[in-house]
Amino acid sequence: MQILDAEKESKIWPLFRLGFRTFFLGGALYACLAMLLWLLALSGARVLPGVGNPIWWHAHEMIFGFGLAIVAGFVLTAIQNWTGIPGVRGWPLALVSGLWLLPRLLMPLRGELNPLVIVLDLLWLPLIAGMLARPIIQIKQWRNLFFVPLLGFLTLLNVLSYYAAASGNWLLAERVFISAVLTLSALIAVMGGRVIPFFTSRATGTEKPQPMMLLEKLSLGSLWLATLGWLLLPRTALFNGLLAVVLLVAALSNLARLARWNSKLTLNIPLLWILHLGYLFIPLGLLALAAALLQLGITVSLASHWLTAGALGAVILGMIARVSLGHSGRPLEIGKPMAVAFALVILAALLRSLLPLLAPGLTTIAYHGSALAWTLAFGQFCRLYWPVLTQPRVDGRPG
């Protein structure tokens, strides 16, 4: 950037100098707040006075509130590296982050069917897509244009989630939420394949394994196919069986993909093992969903938490910890407190997805323990990374 650009940027509050700052911090804070509200609601406290369906609210907000905030922060930051064009900053970033925040604050009070809440919540993600599209089209970098229709697809799923809430159709809501979770899992698989082997190779001084194109196409293609199948296929024994086969193929191929990434070399590097463990929850979650479709003793809700509490929780926490350090000019090193946070998010995933399966009588304890561990994990991130995300880069560079 030119010196003039740096002078202009010095007048911008650091929180709004690049997308990772506002959306990573906002998303992590909301991960704590929303989970704490859910924990209190589970305990019988009236903390969601305007919400008609607290289960709908919990699922919707952890996906479209928390999860997509992190996605927004990631792509708004990465687009600068991909295109060489300065990323969104200043008042446009403040505007779109405010549009994300308002529905989060209003929904517990006004409810999920409030027109203002719905309009605001359906507005911010297309704005992010537009902010991405402009530089990509400007330099004709078509490879990364897929994020634009992807965000459009997630917006469509959000529309359907509100329609399901308005019509009281929980089966549709569950179908939409699982489709959104699978979409985010597929996005993790795409980006994980790009960065996890690279991070591992660089940190361990080993050669980066070259992708096997057939395995790449099989693992990613089957996962995207499973996502569309979950959304569109009729719920009959025949189609459930076919979808279970696709999920099984996706699970095994993604497990084979992960096995090539030298996970055993990461045991002493928390910034790496959290990503490898988080990715492991993807094939485990796909297997669990296949078992749920085949009615093999697990519910769809329980199966989905291998992906939400597991893959999304662990990979997101690992990625925001790493990206925040790199883009603030700091060494890629963390201390024991953040490693404890990684352990807590893994514990939250296991309590929520595994304990009810092994000991159904402990399900309530599992829910409460998982929510508490999750809140502590992301709360630790907020505590440790507040100065990282709200203060200028330590090397004096813009961003």
From TrEMBL:
The chain crosses the membrane at residues 20-42, 62-79, 113-133, 145-164, 176-193, 214-233, 239-259, 271-294, 306-325, 337-359, 365-386. The keyword Metal-binding does not apply. Keywords: Membrane, Transmembrane, Transmembrane helix. It comes from the Bacteria. This is Heme-Cu protein NnrS. It comes from Zobellella endophytica.
